[in-house]
Amino acid sequence: MHILIIEDDLDLGFALQQALKVEGVSSEWLRRVADVPLLRAEAGFDCVLLDLSLPDGSGLDLLTRWRRAAVVVPIIIITARSALADRLAGLDGGADDFLVKPFATAELLSRMRAVLRRYARQAGDVWTIGALQIEPRSRVARLDGVALELSPREFHLMLELAREPGVVVPKAALAQRLEPLGDALDFGTLEVHVFNLRRKIGAARIRTVRGIGYLFVA
User: Fold this and answer.
1) In sequence order, what are the beta bridge partners of 206?
2) What span, in angstroms and rounded, lies between the C-alpha atoms of 24 and 130?
3) Per-residue b/e over 66-75, b at no fewer than 16 CB within 10 Å?
4) Largest CA distance in the chain
5) Phi, psi dihedrals of residue 195, rounded to the nearest 5°
6) How many Å separate Cα 208 from the centre of its chain?
7) How far apart are CA 67 and CA 127, in angstroms?
8) CA-CA distance, 10 to 7, in Å (whole number)?
9) What is the per-residue pLDDT for 194?
10) Sign of CA dihedral 47, 53, 57, 60
11) What is the pLDDT at residue 40?
């Protein structure tokens, strides 16, 4: 999982990154509206933690801009504002959840998992896609009840494709998601990992859309 944190408080931003790292979650931290990317799919963010009060603008304006541009990345507002009007403005503006500071890291992680389940159209911690079952937290996958021996890269690849079954994931976006903090994976290496994953979960589950990317068959 790769998270974008938009938070101007130095202590909180650092603490969030450290807490996420302990949980095996990578993150990028920005403190100003001017530094925030356009949130294209290639950026590879699974979720955004968004503060409302930023030094050079409003988090709510950012949220509105993204949703008008059809950005579908899950967004959780983290703010010291606790008034009902602020919560309603955030949720009605397109946020997936709203968390008032101070909050426990465990609660934040739980809320992140919840919005990601909804994004993947899954009801629980075990994602069921036909005969395939995926447990993102424990990094376990089963096919017809039998545990699969997947490398960390293969599991990550499967998870990225399974987030949106039936939707084509562009190669460039997938290559960046597999290396969120570095240079995108080269396409040759990506194709090798796709080949190996197909051998283990069944070739028919991953369809190549020529010239575009890959589609996970529901």
Assistant:
1) 216
2) 28
3) beeeebebbb
4) 53
5) -60, -45
6) 22
7) 26
8) 8
9) 94
10) positive
11) 63
Contact at 8 Å (CB) between 96 and 76? Answer: yes
Alpha-carbon distance 93 to 187, whole Å? Answer: 37
Look at strands 146-147 and 97-100 and give their pairing.
unpaired
pLDDT of residue 36: 83
pLDDT digits (tens, 9 = 90+) for 119-159: 766 656 788 888 999 988 788 999 999 999 999 999 999 98
107 exposed, middle or buried (CB, 10 Å; 0-12, 13-18, 19+)? exposed
* SS3 labels along the chain: CEEEEECCCHHHHHHHHHHHHHCCCEEEEECCHHHCCCCCHHHCCCEEEECCEECCEEHHHHHHHHHHCCCCCCEEEEECCCCHHHHHHHHHCCCCEEEECCCCHHHHHHHHHHHHHHHCCCCCCCEEECCEEEECCCCEEEECCEECCCCHHHHHHHHHHHCCCCCEEEHHHHHHHCCCCCCCCCHHHHHHHHHHHHHHHCHHHEEEECCCEEEECC
In the chain, the percentage of residues whose pLDDT exceeds 70 is: 94
Q: Considering only CA atoms, which of 60, 46, 52, 8 is closest in space to residue 30?
A: 8
For residue 27, give both structure tokens: 């993150």
Give the residue among 2, 8, 35 at the shortest CA–CA distance from 20. Answer: 2
